[in-house]
Specification:
Distance between the termini: 28 Å
Low-confidence stretches: none
Helix content: under 10%
Number of strands: 15
Strand content: over 45%
Radius of gyration: 15 Å
Number of helices: 1
């Protein structure tokens, strides 16, 4: 669930993202996702980044106002990170199949992919340019990112 403008955006197991008017509680919009939403949606400016599980796993970039899909990235295995991490112009997610992925926020193109030890779960970025990746095994890895990695 996330609040955007005067709406509460809530994903439901029937595969929709719902816009609920914060004042009246009325559902004003329902957008089909092609699977059920997973984890926490992340707003960034006029966009919302959302993980979806279905026949394939998806990372969706949606326009918050219209609900239209701007771009999609898919994977055969579900994204194991519970939420996308937005840093600068990059979206980070990860899974067992690909490892750690960095996608361009504007168009969803792949910036880079890096293997990680184990299945990535938690992502954090520090002000010194370090990306921390926590794995389900309990291992935490640190990656020193160059400014070009996030711009």
């Amino acid at each position: 669930m996330v609040v955007a403008e005067n709406s509460v955006l809530v994903g439901t197991i029937d595969g929709f993202l719902n816009w609920i008017d914060a004042d009246s509680g009325t559902v004003t919009k329902r957008v089909p996702l092609g699977g059920y939403p997973y984890g926490t949606p992340v707003p960034s400016g006029p966009r919302l980044f959302l993980l979806v599980n279905g026949e394939t796993a998806k990372l969706l970039a949606l326009d918050v106002g219209s609900g239209s899909v701007i771009w999609t990235q898919e994977s055969e295995q579900e994204w194991s990170t519970y939420r996308p991490l937005v840093v600068g112009s990059v979206i980070f997610v990860g899974n067992a199949e690909i490892g750690l992925c960095a996608f361009d926020q504007a168009d969803g193109s792949v910036r880079w992919r890096r293997p990680v030890a184990g299945i990535p779960r938690g992502l954090r970025f520090s002000s010194d340019g370090t990306l921390y990746v926590g794995a389900l095994s309990g291992v935490v890895q640190a990656f020193a990112l160059d400014k070009s990695d996030i711009k």
